[in-house]
Amino acid sequence: MTNKTNAIVILSDWQVPLHDEDKIKRVADFIGDFQPIRLGHVGDMTDSTQLGRWARGLREEFDGGLEGGFEKTRELIGYHRAKYDGPWDLVRSNHDERLENAIEQRLPGLKGLTIKGHKLNIQNALRLDDFGIDWHESPVEIAPNWVMAHGDEGRTSSIPGATALQLASEIHKNVVCGHTHRAGLAWSSKGLGDDRQAFAGMEVGHAMTVSAAEYLGRARLNNWGNAFGILWINNGEVFPQLVPINPDGHFMVNGERY
To answer: Deepest of 82, 84, 164, 242, by most Cβ within 10 A of its Cβ?
Structure first.
C-alpha cells in the first residue's frame, strides 16, 4: 500500500475547455507522488461555455461543443485517477451548474428526462460516481475547522484571499475556495485582547489558459493566478499552504520542483 501524506490537496477551477492541460497534468503527477489523504476540488471543472449567458444567441451557443468539453473533463479526471485512488470531494459551482440552470430556465421540457435512468445533470455528465468522486451541493468541511466552498456564496472581492476570508468570518470557520481565479492566503481575527478567534481564507486560483478567456477583452487584463492549495494536518491542527504555479508550469513543494 502507498503511504499517504497527512495533507489534503485542493484543486482550482479547470473550466474545461478553457483549461491549461499541461498545468493540470503537472499537478496530477505531483499528486501521484505526494499521495495526500484526500483530494478536493472547488468546482468549475467545466466551463460549459455553450450554456453561459455570455454565449446566448451567439455562435458559441450553437457550436455543438458541450459534450466535447465534458469528454475532455472526464479524460482529465481519469488521468488523476490513474495516479490517485483516494477520497475525492467536489463542491457545486456556478459553471458546473449551467447545465441544470439551462434546463430549469430555458428548456423546462427536458426537466425530469433521464438517459438510461440517469438525470441530466453535471454529476452524471461527468460520470462522477464511476470515478468515485463525492459531489456536494453545498460547502463541505473537508478538514478540521476548514470548509471547502466554491466562492460565490458570499461577496466577491478583487483582493486575492479576501473573498475566502469574508466567507470565513461569516461562517466562523476557515475557508478554502475558488471562483475568483485569484490566488491568495489571508488571515484575520476577532475578539478582545488575548480572547480572540483567528480565521484564514485561501483562494486557490485557477488552472485555465488565460488567452482562452475571451471575455477578459483583447488585453486579457486580470489579477488571476495559477495555483492550488495544500492543507497540512498535524495533531488535529491544519496549516494552509498556497502553491503558485509559474507561467512555465513548474511549482515547488517541500523544496522539490515539479
So the answer is: 164
Give the whole-angstrom CA distance, residue 197 versus residue 143: 18
Cα gap 136→246, rounded to integer Å? 30
Question: Is the model's pLDDT at 36 over the cut of 50?
Answer: yes
C-alpha span between 80 and 242 (Å, rounded) = 20
Q: Which residues contact 75 (CB under 8 A, 6 or more apart)?
A: none
Would you list the domain boundaries of the chain? 5-257
Average pLDDT over residues 121-141: 96
Query: Whole-model pTM?
Result: 0.90
| CATH, domain 5-257, list 1.10.3720.10, 3.60.21.10, 3.30.450.20, 3.40.50.300 | 3.60.21.10
Contact 253, 34 (CB under 8 A): yes
CA 46/CA 93 separation, integer angstroms: 10
Whether pLDDT at 87 is above 50: yes
Mean residue pLDDT of the chain comes to 89
Query: What does the DSSP assignment read for 118-185?
Result: EESSHHHHTTTTTTTEEEESS-EEEETTEEE--S-SS---SSTTHHHHHHHHHHTSEEEE-SS--EEE
CA 103 to chain centre: 23
Nearby residues of 133 by Cβ (< 8 Å), 6 or more positions away:
41, 77, 88, 89, 90, 126
The stretches of the chain forming alpha helices (DSSP H) are: 21-34, 66-81, 98-105, 122-125, 162-171
C-alpha 213, offset from chain centre: 17
The reply to whether omega before 36 is within 30° of 0 (cis) is no
